[in-house]
Specification:
Number of helices: 7
Largest sheet: none
Strand content: under 5%
Distance between the termini: 57 Å
Helix content: 55-70%
Length: 155
């Protein structure tokens, strides 16, 4: 068990600004946090944890937009986030789902603590594969077969 006094003794700066979220306790970069990787017993339990992470990310999207001055609407940010979750929807192994959830929680914490910079965040929100899929869906909607094949051959 970590002793808070010992941690603060070795920490050069005693006061840190904290970012407070309504869904979690205060995050303080001056204290060591223990990440407990939960091993889900079933796919249902792992999915429940993934949905909880998804909701938490969607809740803080407006704050992240404000802090990082993102040039997207909150709806576009949420769409990008949901695309990343749908990208991994085919995973059926609970251990893999747990690993993805832990990685997502770490990314969320790093973002909220502002350990990431705006380009790191934009790389996630503007994934080229996501943009490519959206472009293809726009091109194929309301187009003739000839134009769809023409655009497809241009790639």
């Amino acid at each position: 068990k970590l002793d808070k006094k010992k941690v603060l003794q070795y920490c050069p700066v005693k006061q840190y600004s904290t970012f407070h979220c309504s869904w979690t306790q205060k995050m303080n970069p001056g204290t060591l946090t223990r990440v407990q990787t939960a091993s889900s017993g079933s796919l249902k339990e792992a999915s429940r944890r993934a949905i909880k992470l998804y909701r938490n990310i969607l809740k803080v999207a407006p704050k992240v937009k404000t802090v990082f001055d993102v040039d997207m609407s909150v709806a576009e940010m949420r769409s990008a986030i949901s695309w990343h979750f749908r990208k991994s929807a085919h995973v059926r192994d609970p251990r893999v789902v747990d690993m993805l959830v832990v990685k997502g929680e770490m990314d969320l914490e790093e973002t909220l603590m502002q350990y990431k910079q705006k380009p790191h965040l934009m790389r996630i929100l503007e994934d080229p594969n996501m943009l490519k899929e959206k472009e293809q869906s726009k091109v194929t909607q309301g187009q003739s077969d000839f134009l769809a094949q023409f655009y497809k051959s241009d790639e």
